Amino acid sequence: MANPFVRAQYLLAAHNHRQLPPDGGFEVAFAGRSNAGKSSALNALCQQNALARVSKTPGRTQQLVYFALPPYEDRFLVDLPGYGFAKVPKDLQAHWQAFLDGWFGSRDALKGLVVVMDIRHPLKDYDRQMIGYAVNRGLPAHALLTKADKLGRGAAGNVLQAVRKELSGAYGDTVSVQTFSGESKLGVDEAREVVARWLEL
Ligand SMILES: Nc1nc2c(ncn2[C@@H]2O[C@H](COP(=O)(O)OP(=O)(O)OP(=O)(O)O)[C@@H](O)[C@H]2O)c(=O)[nH]1
Ligand SMILES: [Mg+2]
Q: Where is the signal peptide (predicted)?
């Protein structure tokens, strides 16, 4: 399959609903703990080095970052800020949480959720919560066990089996899982296929 994401480009960063594109298209969100590797995964999918900003200091900006997929005008990838960080003032935190909950809970354009988890620390509370929210509102989720290059093949395979067993036990076919690495590019094609299918590309 030709890569439909190579032309992806930054569109906007929204911190309230007025800044969002019209809710009529197709969007896939990337969620995960701070530092899990969301931005790196987006870059790998799009074969770009600097599409989404990769950081060593996680968790400051609380915005939905939209990337457009030209020539389509209504297909977007959305980079969510990492959860698990509270380095912002309380009132901002509350505003952000309300915005995110509203968006995630009712955005029609949202077609699926990619949950990015460090393969060495999978299925933390927030990961489970996000997957649960997605399934509850009828969305499929796909888990990337990323930084798989940090483990040997056998160890990575064991984590994959355990996570797959747990998720398919709880959710059946609605939630899928794979190993991934933005570094070695392991699993990039597989992930891209899932996202492209959700976006009906
Ligand atoms: N070895 C290895 N390192 C990775 C991989 N993916 C990301 N990293 C590193 O992990 C760190 C965080 O990566 P990001 O892609 O910025 O993570 P993020 O989830 O977008 O982080 P926030 O946006 O701050 O929440 C960076 O130092 C990356 O270079 C991977 O597959 N393998
Ligand atoms: Mg990021």
A: none
Q: Is 54 in the pocket of ligand 1 (CB under 6 A)?
A: yes
Q: In what order do the strands lie in the sheet with 141-146?
A: 9-14, 64-68, 75-79, 26-32, 110-118, 141-146, 175-179
This prediction has a pTM of 0.95
Ligand 1: which residue has its CA nearest to atom 24? 58
Locus of tokens 């959860």 = 83
**Predicted confidence (pLDDT) per residue in 32-49, tens digit:** 998 899 999 999 999 999
Nearest atom in ligand 1 to 181's CA:
31
Domains of the chain in start order, with CATH, are 9-198 (3.40.50.300)
* Protein residue with least CA distance to atom 27, ligand 1: 56
